[in-house]
Amino acid sequence: SDKKARFGEDQDDQTAIFIQNILKFRRDKPTEEIERALDRCGFVLTEDLVLNVLRRHRSDWKPAYVFFTWACKGGGGTGYLPGSDCFNEILDILGKMRGFDEVSQVLDEMSKREGLINEGTYEILLNRYAAAHRVEEAICTFYKRKEFGLELDLVAFQKLLMWLCRYKHVEVAETLFNEKGKEFEQDIKTWNIILNGWCVRANVRESKRFWKDIMASKCKPDQFTYGIFINSLTKKGKLGTALKLFRAMWDQGCNPDVVTCNCMIDALCFKKRIPQALEVFQEMNVRACLPNAATYNSLIKHLCKIRRMEKVYELLDEMEQKGGSCLPNEVTFNCLLKSLKKPEEVPGLLERMEKSRCKMTSDTYNLLLKLYMEWDCEERLRYTWEEMERNGLGPDQPSYTIMIHGFHAKGRIKDFLRYFREMTSKGMIPEPRTEILVNSMNIKWKEDGGQAEKLAKGSDNLTVDLSTDV
Questions:
Q1: Mean pLDDT over residues 305-323, rounded?
Q2: 455 has a pLDDT exceeding 70
Q3: What is the 3-state secondary structure (H, E, C) of 194-229?
Q4: Rounded distance, CA 5 to CA 3, Å?
Q5: Where, in residue numbers, are the PPR repeats (predicted)?
Q6: What's the Rg (C-alpha) of the chain?
Q7: How far is CA 300 from CA 256, 261, 320, 324, 347, in A?
């Protein structure tokens, strides 16, 4: 069927959905009972099947961990042992949900088998430790590379700096760069990582300081150095300076790459200078700097905002005709979905998305949930939720946040409570705005318990506990 073609459903998918349901309907049962249920099914475990199941639980670590532990024991007597990909996947899930005690247990298990820990493991650990602001653990992971059987080289050092900078620990990254960088060869990429870190922090003063340091160093700036600095200037609204530097790149023969051109187009569009953005777009074609989907997406996003829909669909047609790196992607269709005014327009756009071989993602599903909530389309809201779950793409924390705030705005307190409790039972941490909402509801209920009972009829306990077992 079309649906199967869209999601690539095969035998592994069907078995994974079956396992997903076993875990879902027994999530509150003891681990031993869940393992016995899995044993009775007699699945033949493979790496692909285990990965499929784990990826369906990216935002629900407890059932994922129960299943993975069961698979590590031989998976119902099949003798199967997970490989590096499965170990890395569970590490990523646990790290994302801040289950760092379990991360340590999985690492201990991996160290018992030679060759399981690889570069993918290393990057996942850096990413999840840095994201959780566990900077010391991230740095220790770098120094443990020899224990893991990995080289302590420049590339590994650059990855450490990159993940620290990604999560705004730029001061730490620059200190490491100054102290440890001397042990490796001078490389402009390492300088670029720190410069980009200051750009991510939108700190123009530090970006300028570090730019001067690069100019005074033995390393010659490349097109990425210029691109990063231009990005930093545009983020702070210094469009004139950015444009001068952009033009200077062409004049000096250090031609901007597509990323830098996209940055200029996006900045010009943001300042509502769309004709000038279109000029840069045309110049790219003349100077053989070929645009990609991100180039078109910048234009489409801003043209949608000012309702230039004829031009938007003209660009979309062009993307589909060019194909390759210009083919419309998730970002393209999400921009178009946001521009829709009524639910009847959704199926046609999703059909076009399918024809472009653009797969649904959790972000697209969450956008549909938000739209259907705003349009008060309960049937489509429920169908989207179920389809997202069936295809292993959620629900995640943003999905629950949409439902919680949407139902609260509609005065549907029972549904608001149900989704909040379900979210926290999965170890998801509420957004600050959700915490504020729940706290205000708790105060209101304490002040007027009788009225609250009428509003939330059928709920077992009106006061909501904000603590989460992560």
A1: 95
A2: no
A3: HHHHHHHCCCHHHHHHHHHHHHHCCCCCCHHHHHHH
A4: 5
A5: 187-221, 222-256, 257-291, 292-326, 396-430
A6: 25
A7: 22, 15, 14, 18, 20
The average confidence (pLDDT) of the chain is 91
Would you give the DSSP letter of residue 464?
P
d(CA 87, CA 102): 12
On the question of pLDDT at 447 being above 80, the answer is no
**Model pLDDT for residues 29-42, shown as the tens digit of each residue:** 999 999 999 999 98
Q: What gap in Å lies between CA 28 and CA 397, rounded to an integer?
A: 20
| The two three-digit tokens of residue 93, written as one number | 């899930």
Give the C-alpha separation, 52 to 36, whole Å: 21
Q: Which of 169-173, 282-286, 375-379 has the lowest mean pLDDT?
A: 282-286
**338-360: average pLDDT:** 95
DSSP letters for 54-84: HHTTTT-HHHHHHHHHHHHTTTTTT-----H
> In percent, how much of the chain has pLDDT > 70?
93
Residue 398 to residues 61, 126, 363, 393, 431: CA-CA distances in angstroms?
16, 24, 9, 12, 9
Residue 3: the pLDDT is 44
End-to-end CA distance of the chain: give it in Å, rounded.
Answer: 40
Rounded CA-CA distance 141/305 in Å is 44
Question: Can you read off the two tokens belonging to residue 325?
Answer: 């790196």
